[in-house]
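Slide 14.
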Amino acid sequence: MKPAIVMQTDFTLGSSVSTMFGVCRIIDPEVSVFNGTHNIRQFDVLGASHSLMYICPFWPDDTIFVSVVDPGVGTARRACVAKLSSGQYIVTPDNGALTYPFERIGITEIREIDDKHRFPTTRDVSIFHGRDLFAYVAAKLASGVITYEQVGPEYPVEEIILVPYARPVVKDGVISGMLTHSSAHFGLVDTNIPYKWMEENGILHGDIVNVKLLHRGKPVFDRDVLHHKSFGYVPEGEPVLVCSETQHMLIALNRRNIVTEYDLKDGPDYTMEIRK
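Slide 15: predicted structure.
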């Protein structure tokens, strides 16, 4: 069986994504192509990186991921294919989208895509590398038309562009970290604070802790919150601190939406502090 291709973009699901699927099918109709997500916030390369960190471990080791959040499309930024320690590949602009895969999964090799690997009828187009370069190269790799070594020249993994972010820390009894994902659909706010840090710092299921959510250092949420296994351990509308799908700390309101009620987003400007 040929490797699957999984695509994520900030395009929303529409005609642009359809053309990327079509390019893959032109190369090889036997290659399976799947949607990851197309709802990454526009131009949010760190959001793209977080999505990759979340989904990669739950796909087979030969999967090829196409990640296109590309505010620098058509400029000198590198287009690349990164090989993960798992054996998976990520086809993406090297613009920060590889930050979390580099740090959390491991990248063993990276190659810049040779410009000869371009969809032949759109060579005058410089604003849609998702279709004309990334999907095209991913399909060639998945089908065996080219090997990884034929993608283009290798360059040092130390040159991969990494986006700075607020790393989790424990200091003076306060556990803090960055909001990594705020979902307006269910109102779930994930962080980069490892779940295992709670027990390591004496916070167990059933404990009440003070939680602050801050935007650029100014509190926008400051309440005592129950730490437990899931949402149903608090009354409707009350906050709860749980282990997220990524095994980090997540805050939510039971059957309500903390994201919309407190106008929360994510990224380095948004942080959480937990005090027992």
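Speaker note: The two ends are 51 Å apart (CA to CA).
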